[in-house]
Amino acid sequence: MKTYTGMLLVFLMLHSPADAHDKCSKAECAKVKEQIRTMESRMRAGYSRAQGQKYEDKLRELKARRRKLCR
């Protein structure tokens, strides 16, 4: 019985942080996706050459973050 209880405690200790991290990742993923949609919307509205370079750089950065967070 002690072995079962010990195993259960270890499982619960390891399981909880993963859930918290998963929820955080989902929230961060959603935030990054929204930022990408906003940036793409700005780009469709038109921009100068200098703004275009900044928008492309920001979009590239956001897409890299999305690849890292949204698995």
Q: What coarse outline follows from CA principal-axis ratios?
A: rod-shaped
> How would you characterize the largest beta sheet?
none
Mean pLDDT, nearest integer?
83
Please compute the radius of gyration using only Cα atoms. 20 Å
Helix content: over 70%
Order of helices and strands: HH
**Percent of sequence in beta strands:** under 5%
Distance between the termini: 39 Å
Please mark out the parts with pLDDT under 50 across 5 or more consecutive residues, or reply none: none
User: Structural class per helix/strand content?
Assistant: mainly alpha
Number of helices: 2
Structural summary, described in words:
By secondary structure, the chain is mostly helical. It has a domain at 23-71. It has 2 helices and no strands. The chain has helices at 2-44, 49-69. Helix 1 runs antiparallel to helix 2. The two termini are 39 Å apart.
Features:
90% helix, single chain, rod-shaped, 71 residues, 2 helices
Topology readout:
Blueprint: H1 2-44, H2 49-69
Helix pairs in contact: 1-2
Summarize the model shown.
With 71 residues, the protein is mostly helical. Helices cover 90% and strands 0% of the residues. It is built from 2 helices and no strands.
